[in-house]
Amino acid sequence: MRPYIAQTASNLRLMVRDRAVLFYSYLFPLVFFFTFAQVFHAGASPGAMAQVIAMVMIIGVLGNGFFGAGIRTVLDRETNVLRRFKVAPISAGPIIVASMISGWAAYMPTVFFFLFFGHVIYHAPFPHNFLSLLLFISIGLLAFRAMGMIIAAVVNSQQEATILIQLLYLPMLFLSGATFPTSIMPDWVQIIASFLPATYLFQGMKSILLGGESAFSRANLVSALCLITAMAVALFVGIKLFRWEKEEKIAGKAKLWILVVLAPFLISGVYQARTKQGIEREKQMDRAASQMRTVLFHNVNIFVGNGETIQGGSVLIKNGKIAQVFRKSPEDIKSLNADVNEESGKTLMPGLIDMHVHIGAPGGVFQNPQSYADPHAETRRLAAYLYSGVTAVRSTGDLLDGALALRQTVSASGKYEGAEFFTCGPLFTAVGGHPEELLASFPEIMRKTAKEQFLRQPKTPDEARAQVIALKQAGVDCVKAVLEAGNPTWGQFKHLDPDIYRAVISEAAGQGLPTATHTGNASDVKLAVDTGSNSIEHGSTIDLIPGETFAAMKAHNIVYDPTLSVFEALVDLQQGHTQILNRPLLQQVGPADLLSNTQSVFSKPVKNVDPVRLQALLNTANQNLLHAYQSGVTLITGSDAGNMLVIHGPTVQHELELWVNAKIPAAVALQAATYNAAKTLHQENRIGLIREGMDATFILLDGDPLQDISATEHINAVYLRGEHIDRGDLFDQFKP
Length: 736
Description:
Helix content: 40-55%
Structural class: alpha/beta
Mean pLDDT: 91
Strand content: 5-15%
Low-confidence stretches: none
Oligomer: single chain
């Protein structure tokens, strides 16, 4: 042990005396630190500061390992310094181990410098898992020192060492994230990066700094094991191949030992290339960093969400939350340490919410049957919503397993960017009840499975209660039942037994699940209200809902979702009107083949259509909505997207236009699409309002929707939990 200690102490004394070592170990990294901090506006974002710290630490580790250990050892051999150690005598083990330890000791103070200056100058918080950060950096630093020593062991000259080190150093410097964020690179470049040791170190440090993960968390375990294995192999081989004098030559094939040292990363890289887990992880970390930005939206008109408006106010977001709402310009903007966005003439409001969609249905027809089997179809639809400023949607009837998986993929894991997704799961209905008839369009081989996933058709109240409990255990966000006997326009259906319906609603209430009820006429609405459903979907187009029913809805805080869009679409289909598909925002997000094929198929009117009867249907729906508003009933917006001509995307915007045409005030309609919807989802503590402490999930509009409701389609920017969504890249997620 004494030789190891003595050699380490000797190395440290020499480093302290060497001005070049001091410059490149401390001053030089700080130059990169401050440069990157300014370029990435680190003062306005703890996430950017974490990125900067990880970048400069990687640069330092690479230099410390390849040049500080590798090149230095070759120089000592060529200048006969090692020959004198050999005479001492001392073995190779203390030389290599002492080099690793002294290099570690010389480098670690820079870590504290970075964290100190980041906190004092750029107001970045200290890492939550500080010890994990030190441990992970130590593992990486020792591993790269060992790699530098193995390079020194297998080269015969400084020239060879320089060439070999540059072949390793430059790709790691430019592809690992040390100089450019890897998420901006093409996938094939990121796949190459997954074979590089520096990438594993960089991602591990970022995850600790950004996400508070530990050094040996599940996400970092593979990286840590690869680095430790590489260090152990390099140390063992380096000792075996160590040479004291420049006259001692080694065969060229000895350089293959470097591949042995890099083997853990090559093996892991093959796995990463197949699964692309590293790419997804880096993308999610960059999104997390984006959410940490501090931004001030200055001199903007604010629609709060609860009907209140603020003219010429400001909104400060920080760490993904709304930190402060100003009714006038802040007195000292510089003290906020924020990026300032001047938004004169724009309106900032909560993200829109569509409370009634069927995400599994496209809303149109494809000419190519293969398009229906697109594995990314549903995630793409959620991206279309987000592009359109609809930041949350509620599925009110989809295949159970698919809906739960979609919620996990988009809303929980963040693997894909899209609107937040909530699901009611399968529909409770009668045998032969709506919407069982839709299953006829499925291929026969799929109908049985689709029925099991899409419908619940209990025969008794007890069976209904058991099925509700099962759905609760499966993890649905709400439960929906259907009370519908149909009409001559779209068919007659079996009606759900009232006792079974009551069992569904009461059991859901007992399980803490919100309930929604599809109704067909005024008597269905009364039954749903008397039973205690939390929301009424559709209301009635057959007859007018009595005032006493609306009074009961108000008294029991039951919300009304009129879904005017789907009724308009049903009428348009009968008359061959497809102009709704030409809206500019829908053209931007709707699949081109879906839009064109749908227009071709439905461009001709159905024979023997009675336009008077169709207009009466719309008039009834409009009158019921207006009466509900006048009765003080809480309103929410749903489009019933997925039905023909109601294509996923800017659905809420058109629903709002229909409401305003039905004489609903714009402020009331906008509140229905924001705060009221969030409250119905039981999410009003984080979305639906522009208020301190809420998620920074909102949209920025060019114009004032209170004056012109069509301004809701003029999207300037979309923010989701503080992340500025790059709308142009949303659909690139699904490219092969």
